[in-house]
Amino acid sequence: MSRQNYIFTSESVSEGHPDKVCDRISDAVLDALLTEEPEARVACETFATTNRVVIGGEIGLSDQDKLHEYMVRIEDIARDCIRDIGYEQDKFHWETCEITNLLHEQSAHIAQGVNAATDKEEGAGDQGIMFGFATNETDALMPAPILYAHAILKRLAEVRKDGTEPALGPDAKSQLSVRYENGKPVGVSSLVLSTQHLDPDLTSADIRAIVEPYITEVLPDGWLTDATEWHVNPTGKFVIGGPDGDAGLTGRKIIVDTYGGAAPHGGGAFSGKDPTKVDRSAAYAARYLAKNVVAAGLAEKCTIQLSYAIGVSKPLSIYCDTFGTGAVKPAAIEAAIDKVMDLTPRGIREHLSLNKPIYQRTAAYGHFGRAPDADGGFSWEKTDLVEALKAAV
Description:
393 residues, 15 strands, flat
């Protein structure tokens, strides 16, 4: 029997966090190339520090002339991202920071592994394990701590960018410790928020007065009480933020991107990778499957693991854990998953329509627990597999 009464903590970081600046640029490069060619190959990494952004990795288009055109556009893509996030600091400004583009054409050996035909099916781009998770403790079928940690920062970014709260800066972190009773989230025992501010004279108390109404707005009623501990800008001033305050790198916030530590992670980052990379696409598929299992009422909580080998199309294994909450045995769910969805790399891309420029929006506030978009974004959050799963178990 799993624990029913406990406190669990997750953190999130804003779009202005140095690592998230890098994730955003990497995914913007990906979107630009997918706009040109749905089968574009991208493995883009970004590094950011004081007054400097370095972009490297591999990209590939079937038209080499177009590829060279995009190489020239990379700098503008990066500056547009930095401007939209809101950085106009003396030592990190979208107009003046130095941008170095070290991207090059994709390795022929890697392409060979992806393109290899096994029964005329495309192979996985790499070996690896991927996890998906869902729980019925929130309407989004996400763990409450990470869902609301994201929601706080997303709301603060909205009021910063629309001019309602001009004192706030782009860089911020949140952390929620959520109290569970009988296995369900019921309140916040402690809250940590560190947010950059543009006025150096503002105190921690001043910042709390600004942010508290928005935090109260996004959290469920009654979750904040007199017993909740608040730690707002606990170190004092936070004026120098973003890559000027700390270096950033693509892919360093993989727990923030997924389930806040409430579920396993296979270790592979998402941002900057095209959907032939199973690090990304199979993790999306695993979330999609876990969410549909829970939405179908087959379990209250579900983890799905998939594993792949480079050049091999079908997953080596499908594993399901329902933590004792299942209406059917996990083995029956595993068998049903194999029936209702083609989990080859191409099958995943086609089922979830992943060959679209839909990735830049995933770079902050989580890849999961978001509403599906009309243009195909967050397609892995749909629950359109419910009836097929019910019929297959």
